[in-house]
Design brief:
By secondary structure, this protein is α/β, with parallel strands linked by helices. The chain folds into 2 domains: 2-161 and 297-350, Medium-chain alcohol dehydrogenases, catalytic domain (Quinone Oxidoreductase, Chain A, domain 1), CATH 3.90.180.10; 164-293, 3-Layer(aba) Sandwich (Rossmann fold). It has helices at residues 42-48, 101-104, 153-156, 162-172, 188-199, 214-220, 231-235, 254-258, 281-285, 299-312, 326-334, and strands at 2-8, 17-23, 30-40, 68-75, 87-90, 93-95, 115-116, 136-140, 180-184, 203-208, 224-227, 241-246, 261-269, 290-293, 318-322, 341-345. The strands form 4 sheets. Strands 3, 4, 5, 8, 15 and 16 form a 6-stranded mixed β-sheet that branches. Strands 11-10-9-12-13-14 form a 6-stranded parallel β-sheet. Strands 1-2 form a two-stranded antiparallel ribbon. α4 (162-172) crosses α5 (188-199) and α4 (162-172) packs across α10. The two termini are 23 Å apart. The structure holds NADP nicotinamide-adenine-dinucleotide phosphate and zinc ion. Zinc ion binds at residues 41, 43, 66, 161.
Amino acid sequence: MYQAKAYSAASATAALGGTTIQRREPTDQDVQIEILFCGVCHSDLHQVRNEWSEVMPTVYPCVPGHEIVGRVTKVGAAVKKFKAGDLAAVGCMVDSDGTCPHCREGLEQFCPNVTLTYNFPDKHTGAVTYGGYSESVVVNQRFVLHVPKNLDLAGAAPLLCAGITTYSPMRHWNVTKGKKVGVVGLGGLGHMGVKFAHALGAHVVVFTTSPGKKDDALRLGADEVVISRHSNEMAAHASSFDFILDAVSADHDIAAYINLLKRDGNLTLVGAPQKPLAVSAFGLIMARRSLSGSAIGGIAETQEMLDFCGQHQITSDVEIIPIQKINEAYDRLLKSDVKYRFSIDMASLKA
Ligand code: NAP
Ligand code: ZN
């Protein structure tokens, strides 16, 4: 074991602060990474504040962070895909059983024995896993991704969660040229959803509660922007969407969006609000519409997404912050005040 600097929360109500954690020495299968940037996902905030206590209660101290890019510092004897000095990335998962039907289909995120990057039992240390708000991380090579060399690293970090979480359902629901696609909530996930839907050739409509984001939405690739609090603007899109991606972090009216789907249209929830959302049965049954969810994406698809981003020059729009500003960043996330992802410059942890 070795000691690594990190930022952690001691309880659901405590601010995050500096600490030291134990990391394992790399085993044969492991890659040790010096973390350069880590994105700030709204899930970090939900988890730190124990807002998902019914599904995944938080164990403290909690070191969040699952949008990790960095440089390889050491590899185990059996690691062939990486060598010291390479760029490397880690997302929301660090292990799975590798043998279940989900793993065999490349859908490790649904493995019953998946290990998430933070706040999950760590079979190596006996404690919980600690995430990317840290100077380094040690991860099994199966869960380490290659970062295309042409991408800006601060902007690439958010691809590891916000990127794959929006890319995967768009591929699953066949977002292509000629499809009308809605993206609800222009935050970290939403703005990546807009970039991917645009790159895949769809007609993209952004739904936002923030009128001030309209110009940005168009710049990011939207064809139209709807201020969702204006009912006349909503009504103009009734029964017209093939697919809607809902990336909202708080309570909101999803029935209103279901009514915007065409016959057989699908709304996929990726946002994970604390409380249940209300659905009208008639909204679904009258036009055979469907409502579904999606969790991040498998490892092979995450690499596919990174390569797609390399080819299309896609990164997240980031505001780079030092780790010392993380509590302020969380307060701003709650006000929908980020354009459009905070990316922590992990060199600040050395300060
Ligand atoms: P974020 O950057 O905070 O963005 C959330 C956006 O939702 C805001 O920018 C805002 O957009 C909208 N919003 C916030 N409060 C709202 C309200 N009361 N009513 C309507 N709209 C509201 O968050 P994020 O990091 O993108 O994460 C979004 C959600 O996805 C979180 O719940 C997160 O935990 C979840 N998530 C899920 C997965 C998965 O695998 N399924 C992966 C990562 C994250 P406007 O200003 O445009 O209205
Ligand atoms: Zn995330």
